[in-house]
Amino acid sequence: LKHVEILDAKTKDKLCFLDKVGNIFTFNPQWYPARQSIRLDPKGKSLKDEDVLQHLPVGTTVFLTEYAGPLLIYLMFYFRVPFIYAPKYDFTTSKHWVVHLACMCHSFHYVKRLLETLFVHRFSHGTMPLRNIFKNCTYYWGFAAWMAYYINHPLYTPPIYGEQQIRLALIVFLFCQIGNFSIHIALRNLRPPGSKTRKIPYPTKNPFTWIFLLVSCPNYTYELGSWLGFTLMTQCLPVAAFTLVGFIQMTVWAKGKHRSYLKEFRDYPTLRSPILPFIL
Amino acid sequence: MASGEEDGTVEEKETNNKKRTKGAIATAWLTFYNIAMTAGWLVLAVAMVRYYLQKGTHKGLYRNIARTLKFFQTFALLEVGHCAIGIVRTSVIVTGVQVCSRIFMVWFVTNSIRQIQNEESVILFVVVWTITEITRYSFYTFNLLNHLPYFIKWARYNMFIVMYPLGVIGELLTIHASLPYVRRSGMYSLRLPNKYNVSFDYYYFLIIVMLSYIPLFPQLYFHMLRQRRRVLHGEIVVEKDE
């Protein structure tokens, strides 16, 4: 831990900060310690006296758990670990090459996310309530298991239009993965480390960022595209369901972000839509 | 200036008038709706009593009332709409869950699995639903007419204590009885391989539905108990669920 700030729950004023963890202190003599409550989140539960700040789930650890889960769970189904399918299939591999391709794409996607969480993203709030972690993990891990079960099933049916469909799907998937990564880099470069200034994102030299002309949250646009590609590649209804649910959630987030951009910047480009150019 | 101020107040009056007419229409519609539903479930009650008095048995009773039951229970979907457009101040989700569970029971269990239609558990939950709905809809009706007899209020907030568990027992026993028939027929199920690469087993789905009663029933029951304490102990009735 480098820097811990304590904020007033109602006014969000900075009360004090700790840079030498381990000191005993009183920061507001108006209320004696028994009347003070420290929480990670204004709406969360109070921390107990014995809680060690370093050991509480915060920021990156949450995302790492959320993303490592699907990565490993999918691999378990891919390698047909015992007790999932009939015993005669244990540790066998699928005879369809699209299944191997799908595993590579799925794994690539989550490895990329893990690396981005570690090296690219700058989190604006370092905390997340415990309740959310449970809900998010159930969502990510549950869907991963549901998808992986069918894609790696011995009775899996490959896409109807065969190689053409798979090739198109792969192109879409890779294009959107690169796009998504480009946006994350562009957003990171918007704000130098430690600065609190917020700026409007604009297209850069990278063609994948030119979509900023039409969309406020192109990272979500590309994410949707990736999963559409994966759906096409695997022709699997649970993947389509996951794509749909993700799309709904990302649209909600994109609309919120778009609204806050409009509120904050007078000169915000009017051509932009939240997530789908001209549509949504 | 004079005309500017007049325009302002005229606009205000117009929107207020619109609001009042909308409120009046809503109340009129809801009053009609609740009277109609009370009547419908009363008709059902009478039909069931008559059948039992004439035939002396419950066998065939479900077939006899099936159409009326399906009609009025399905009509209750409108209540979700009422919450959605805001003329009833209850959560859309809570109402949605309640109505959907009824629709599920009627259409996807009792209606589709003919072999269980003569089970006693079916009669149990249909009777419970009928008593509950007559009480509930007449409560809403009298409320809208601003003339609520105490005994209706008493019934609404006390009978559920017995009705709710009895209804749950009837529903669970019915689903349980249907399991062997579902398994044998493979109804509503999709097996691998298929081009959507998905499967669905109605048998296991029903088992999960039964298990879901365990967390859900106590929550609903204790919610009603809390409402009861608030209403019958003289506090303000707020017909809005959290």
What characteristics describe this protein?
heterodimer, A: 280 residues, mainly alpha, two-stranded antiparallel sheet, 6 helices, 2 strands, globular, B: 242 residues, 8 helices, EC 4.2.1.134 (chain B), lyase (chain B), transmembrane (chain B)
Describe the structure.
The complex is a heterodimer of chains A (280) and B (242). Chain A is mainly alpha-helical and 280 residues long. Chain A has six helices and two strands, in the order E-E-H-H-H-H-H-H. Chain A has a two-stranded antiparallel ribbon. The radius of gyration of chain A is 22 Å and the shape is globular. Mean pLDDT of chain A is 84; it is low at 20-26. In chain B, helix 2 runs antiparallel to helix 4 and helix 7 packs antiparallel against helix 8 (202-232). Chain B is globular.
pLDDT below 50 for ≥5 consecutive residues: which ranges of chain A? 20-26
Shape of chain A: globular
Number of strands of chain B: 0
Rg calc of chain B:
22 Å
* Count of DSSP H/I helices of chain B: 8
Distance between the termini of chain A: 40 Å
Tally of distinct domains of chain B: 1
**Assembly category:** heterodimer
Count of individual helical segments of chain A? 6
Helix content of chain B: over 70%
Going across the major beta sheet of chain A, what is the strand order? 1-2
The strand count of chain A comes to 2
Most extensive chain interface and residues per partner: A-B, 12 and 8 residues
Can you give the mean pLDDT of chain B? 90
Distance between the termini of chain B: 47 Å
- Range of helix content of chain A: 40-55%
The portion of residues forming beta strands of chain B comes to: under 5%
CA-atom Rg of chain A in angstroms: 22 Å
Query: How is the main sheet of chain B built?
Result: none
Please state the overall shape of chain B, judged from the principal axes of the Cα atoms.
globular
Structural class given helices, strands, pairing of chain B? Answer: mainly alpha
Transmembrane segments (chain B): 32-53, 157-182, 202-222
Catalytic activity (chain B): (3R)-hydroxyhexadecanoyl-CoA = (2E)-hexadecenoyl-CoA + H2O; a very-long-chain (3R)-3-hydroxyacyl-CoA = a very-long-chain (2E)-enoyl-CoA + H2O
Family (chain B): Belongs to the very long-chain fatty acids dehydratase HACD family.
Enzyme class (chain B): lyase
